[in-house]
Amino acid sequence: MRRYETIVIVDPDLNDDARTTLFGRVKEIIPQQQGVLIKEDLWGTKKLAYEIKKKPRGFYARFDYCGMGPAVDEIERFFRIDDGVLKYLTVQLAEEADPEKILAEMAAEETATAEATPASAAAPAEAPAAETAADAPADKPATDAPATESAEAEAPAPETDQAPAEPAATETATETSEKE
């Protein structure tokens, strides 16, 4: 099986029912032609770079699927017949594709994204605890303060008597070369 991606621009004046019917037909064609629909992305209504059939806007949708040539032929034939379709483009993504493996990878990515979302929601909850530790009076040590803050507080202050030698030498060398 090959992996394909079809992007279609539909007339934005179509009502939701007509658009759903059109996309439903595409989702029916793929299994009829021994293909597997991987993903359907509805991008929504966007401004076109140029007018197509006197329409300045279009509703974009992307279909990612695995199948063979007859599936692509049938989908494109359906788009040519339907008046609601302004433009379409089909691109072959991979010569050899395993739909089960692709679906498993996508499920793993969604699981990882779902696990990362609660972790990012917990991070703001920890921020107020750090702020309260920083607002503690100076005579009482902050017990909840992170170790990095205490390490910075204990670090010796840089000596102010001596200026860094390297930047001064570089400045002098630059000034002399400009004068020459």
Instruction: Return residue spans where pLDDT drops below 50 for at least 5 consecutive residues.
Output: 129-134, 148-153, 167-180
Shape: globular
Structural class: alpha+beta
CATH topology-level name of the largest domain: Alpha-Beta Plaits
Average pLDDT metric = 77
**Total number of helices:** 5
What would you give as the CATH superfamily of the largest domain? Ribosomal protein S6/Translation elongation factor EF1B
| CATH C-level label of the largest domain | Alpha Beta
In this structure, how is the largest beta sheet organized?
4 strands, antiparallel
Query: Would you count the extended β strands for me?
Result: 4
Your description of this structure?
- Helix content is 49%, strand content 27%.
- It is an alpha+beta fold and 180 residues long.
- It has 2 domains: 2-97, Ribosomal protein S6/Translation elongation factor EF1B (Alpha-Beta Plaits, 2-Layer Sandwich), CATH 3.30.70; 98-133.
- A 4-stranded antiparallel sheet has the order 2-3-1-4.
- The protein is globular, with a radius of gyration of 31 Å.
- The N and C termini lie far apart (71 Å).
- The relative contact order is 0.14.
- Residues 129-134, 148-153 and 167-180 have low confidence and may be disordered.
